[in-house]
Sequence to fold (735 residues):
Amino acid sequence: MRLSLNRTQLKLIAIISMVIDHVAWGFLDFYSPLGQFMHVLGRFTIPIMCFFVAEGFRRTHDLKQYIYRMASAAVFTIIPFYLFFGHEYGYRQNIIFDYLLGLLMLTVLEKTGWNRALKILVVAALFGVSISVGGWIITPSLFILVFYYGRDWRQKVTWFIVCNVVTVASIEIAIFINSRFHIFDYEWTWWSMLYLLGFMLALPVLSLYNGEKGSDRPGSKFFYIFYPAHFIVLWAIQKLTVGYESVYGLYLGMHILVIVVIVIMLEGVLRSQASRGQNSVAIFLVSGAVYVCGFTLEILASTADGYYLACVVQYFGEYIMLISILLFISESCRVSTPRFVYLLHIVAALGLMYALVTTRETGFFYSYIGVNEEHVIGRPELVHSTGFMLSMAFMLIMCLEIVICAIHVFIHGSRIEKRRMQFILCAMISCWMPYLVTMTGVTGGFEIPAVGMLAAGGFMYVCLFRYGALDSVALASENALEKAHEGIMVLDDRYRVSFHNRIVDDIIGGLDHNTDVRNHEVVGRILDGEIDRINVSDRIYEVTLEELKAGRLVQGTMIWFLDVTEHMENLKNMQELAHHDSLTGLYNRGYFKEIVDVDVRDGRRGCFLMMDMDNFKLVNDHYGHQRGDSVLINLASILKDYPDDELYACRVGGDEFCAYIRDNTDKEYITSVIDNIMNRFNHTFRSEDDIRCTISIGAVINDDAGALMDCSTLYSHADRKLYEAKESGKNTYRL
Fold:
């Protein structure tokens, strides 16, 4: 299956890339390796957004509204942009202003009624505005034009690369000239601007666009709101990190608030229906709260011993968090993890905790613990030792296990299991992301694991409730109960009732939840395979069992009570149509032959009758086929007066009928039956034209116990007897 991305996913990539870039501009040295790397990652945004400006122009139903919305966003962003970027950009505008210029260029170029010269003049003026006050000189406008006017993707890519390379080359030439003549204030080095070639990294990502809109969340206006808002947040962080004293209370309060929120989440989880998936999330939240408590202790501590105690609490929380994530993956994504793996993890975690607690003096974990007095609130100075390295290796191994499980789920899992796995990975990444953020210097040396823990808990919480990871059995049963019109019972892996609907109560009586049904009079026999159909009043229910199982992991059992009443009636009607003559209701020739042959194989003797109407053609010719059909029906009603155990009959075709007298070869009895049939039928049709419809019969007794004749043989002999009866004057029989 080819990987693809929809519009929403690409825009989220652009937003993430933009934030990374702006964090680097605000908090890192531009010439540092990390700064340059983050600026390269930030190059995805402009090509993606330019692509969608071109797509938006092509698809919009209200161009004026589109221009107005973008212009409004550009205006509203002016102040937030200057707050954060004023020292870098001076009088130049934000990127939405550049997108607006590109959109206006497309509007001018596609406008009807304007001559070419006027269009060129206006577009040139817009390029002049971009050069004068645009945040990115002409580059976004060129990209928008490329994405709109390129005939196909290959041509778009070619033109894009040419534009990117030419603009970078022009900047390099300007840097070279400026290094000699110092025309501009900027003192860039030639290599510092090569990060702009990173724009081309967005092309492979854009090539995955599938043309679909994707989720409605976030909404279409999200970018316009997020763009100025994130500038305000980054500017606030910059200002807060200037004076550390002013944020001590905020820093401590943040950790306490996170603990409170986690406790609220935990309460919601514990109030939900019990399941192992719920338990693993509860363990995760508890360990997360412990983890954040460790950092709260670190904030309050002022001595080396206090910091060491905080480390003990933090490590304990980290270990249990990772183990609970593995447990949650096992339960919610159907990844069967052997129990000894969890046992090894627990033993390793306990061993490391024991070493951490008992080796304080030996320096097994930290060879030195001091206090950094230069930081306003006091920060620990730690020199890592062997135990720390072992601890990192242990947590790395568990993270790798989680990644391996994720790969397995993304390859073999169902759609909802993949969705759950995405949230679990986001939770794991959120746990460690604050450390990477701290390394960038954005937080001014303040560690913010509480933020990551809050995000991780949120991901797990959403996964638990929104995507049915509470319990796979519960999910299946809830969906079934909502949609089904049949009886449904869901049992857990201990054969206790998890769910059943009202129809089940009507079929087998009331059942309490969490009841072991193996000893139930009806359900126990269903589980043993003794019952597969139940009749209740005038309804028929077919019973089927289905294991709720993925791989080797059995989650429970679902029992379906399918109402097959109409199906059985339809089947009966279909069998009637398949075995009976549509006009007379007697058996048809094929089915009659089958049951005669069955009687013969079973050794049941009898007498074969072959009947043919006399003068039936005259009835049809003079009085029509409708009257003729009534004559046929009258004969059939005479034959159907005999029960099948005595005589069963068929219509061979036309006015020819056959019958088989069952289990009786007495000639007097057979003669009485034939006389009764003939006498009753002789009064069926008489006309004023002296047309009289009678019946002639040929009969063969099948009583040779050692060599009973089959239907075909009996038919042949009876046909000869019928011929003899016809030759002798009709309205008679031969036996």
